[in-house]
Specification:
Elements (H helix, E strand, L loop, with lengths): L1 H6 L52 E5 L2 E5 L3 H7 L4 H16 L21 E8 L5 E8 L1 H4 L19 H12 L2 E2 L1 E5 L11 E9 L8 E8 L2
Parallel strand pairs: 2-5
Antiparallel strand pairs: 1-2, 3-4, 3-8, 6-7, 7-8
Length: about 230
């Protein structure tokens, strides 16, 4: 599938990204002034938005088979009203798979040939890996070309390995939420990877995938850059 993403997306230059953030229920994040990039530099508070974009919006419950998802931060309305139609194309593709199955889509159901071509370079897949103490980790399986041209992230790496040890928890947060069925749009920039890339702003949405239709074991993400 990695080959498919690269081959079908030559019409757009590509680069890289990872997700980061956490909902209002996560109150144990380090103080922003203590966060550092992978190069040890202090990171400004604006880099990390550990909550959905609209914290005042009530959760929107989405039931798909046995799965019960919470769309946080006015996610559905944000997608519907966003000027970049790639968000709605991505969400609608995932919803179509879910409706056809009557359950969460599986990773195996993702077919790049059936996706809008302009999405391919901005997509990535992660799988959930349980390690010592049943701690979930998130490993990248494939990354679109738009992502790999902007970041050092590569397939086989784990989310917690990115950005240095002091920022790893923040990078994991959106993935942990998705694993629990809490979905939201994160907005940030690439300062977590390199201070020189603070001008590269982006948004990330993760959607859950499950081989059995309800126990989330992987995720598909869309990253859209504002440069």
């Amino acid at each position: 599938m990695t080959t498919e993403f690269k081959r079908l997306n030559r019409t757009h230059p590509e680069r890289t990204d990872q997700a980061q953030g956490t909902p209002a229920t996560h109150s144990d994040s380090p103080a922003p002034a203590q966060l550092r990039s992978g190069h040890g530099e202090l990171l400004p508070e604006a880099i990390y938005r550990p909550t959905p974009l609209d914290e005042t919006a009530a959760p929107d419950i989405l039931a798909i088979g046995r799965a019960r998802l919470e769309l946080l931060g006015g996610l559905r309305a944000t997608i519907a009203g966003h000027r970049d139609r790639r968000w709605s194309q991505f969400y609608d593709y995932w919803m179509q798979l879910a409706q056809e199955r009557g359950a969460l889509p599986s990773r195996q159901a993702i077919d790049p040939l059936l996706m809008p071509r302009r999405l391919l370079g901005n997509l990535y897949l992660t799988e959930v890996v349980y390690e010592t103490g049943n701690q979930p980790r998130f490993r990248f399986r494939l990354l679109g070309q738009e992502i790999t041209e902007r970041e050092h992230t590569r397939p086989g790496q784990y989310v917690h390995e990115l950005g240095g040890p002091q920022s790893a928890g923040l990078l994991d947060a959106q993935y942990l939420d998705c694993l629990q069925g809490r979905l939201w749009l994160r907005q940030t920039n690439l300062s977590w990877a390199d201070r020189q890339k603070s001008f590269i702003r982006y948004q990330v949405l993760l959607l859950p995938l499950a081989r059995d239709g309800h126990d989330i074991d992987s995720m598909i993400g869309l990253v859209i850059y504002e440069d």
